Automatic annotation (TrEMBL):
GO terms for biological process: UMP salvage; uracil salvage. Its cofactor is Mg(2+). Residues 6-208 form the Phosphoribosyltransferase domain. Binds 1 Mg(2+) ion per subunit. The magnesium is bound as Mg-PRPP. Belongs to the UPRTase family. Catalyzes the conversion of uracil and 5-phospho-alpha-D-ribose 1-diphosphate (PRPP) to UMP and diphosphate. This is Uracil phosphoribosyltransferase. Uracil binds at residues 194, 199-201. The gene is upp. The lineage of its organism: Bacteria, Bacillati, Bacillota, Bacilli, Bacillales. SUPFAM superfamilies: PRTase-like (SSF53271). The keyword Metal-binding does not apply.
Length: 209
């Protein structure tokens, strides 16, 4: 079963409260979401492998550590996932960015994939799929299906706010995917919003309504 990691670092929790606040406008929402993504990227990369190297400091030549070169990819689920890309890429500049787009079918309410563009070496990369909200889990599950179909074998899912329903659904369908969240909220309301949540993440990031 995929593990759930709740990143309850005080800075992350503080910033999350700012973006939960309905009085927070688009500019600040975007900036703070970016900062949260950066802090989460710091935590999610905690297990990256290191190798030994030598470094010449101004004083001596010393043994030191460097990343072992394992390749990473960041995959935002469009559109709201875009709000987390910059923060992650700031921390991991060598990461490639793939995109996956999904819309909700108005009759079935099921997510439908309409766009996907991935790095060609997807099977060699650890992919960090990002979406600020994990509500029912439908989009995340479909994104994992699409990535695995194209050869991905090592995927992590990172979101800011999750509902227990979404976590359970994603764990059941993709037990190999570890889930990294900033907060596990109470659940979903009758309109599909996470409670207490932060509203529609895409609308708040891009100023649409
Ligand atoms: N997507 C959002 O943007 N917000 C929610 O509360 C649920 C899904």
């Amino acid at each position: 079963m995929g593990q759930v990691h709740v990143m309850d670092h005080p800075l992350i929790q503080h910033k999350l409260t700012i973006i939960r606040d309905k009085a927070t406008g688009t500019k600040v929402f975007r900036e703070v979401a970016d900062e949260i993504a950066m802090l989460m990227a710091y935590e999610i990369t905690r297990d990256l492998e290191l190798e030994d190297t030598m470094v010449e400091t101004p004083v001596v030549t010393a043994k030191a550590k460097t990343l072992s070169g394992k390749k990473l990819g960041v995959v935002p689920i469009l559109r709201a996932g875009l709000g987390m890309v910059e923060g992650v890429v700031n921390m991991i500049p060598a990461a490639k960015v793939g995109h996956i787009g999904m819309y909700r079918d108005e009759t079935t309410f099921e997510p439908v994939e309409y766009f996907i563009k991935m790095p060609s070496d997807i099977s060699e990369r650890t992919l960090i799929v990002v979406d600020p909200m994990l509500a029912t889990g439908g989009s995340a599950i479909l994104a994992m299906d699409a990535l695995k179909k194209r050869g991905a074998t090592n995927i992590k899912f990172m979101c800011m706010v999750a509902a227990p329903e979404g976590v359970k659904a994603l764990q059941e369908k993709h037990p190999d995917v570890d889930i990294y969240i900033a907060a596990l909220d109470e659940g979903l309301n009758e309109d599909g919003y996470i409670v207490p949540g932060l509203g529609d993440a895409g609308d708040r990031l891009f100023g649409t309504k």
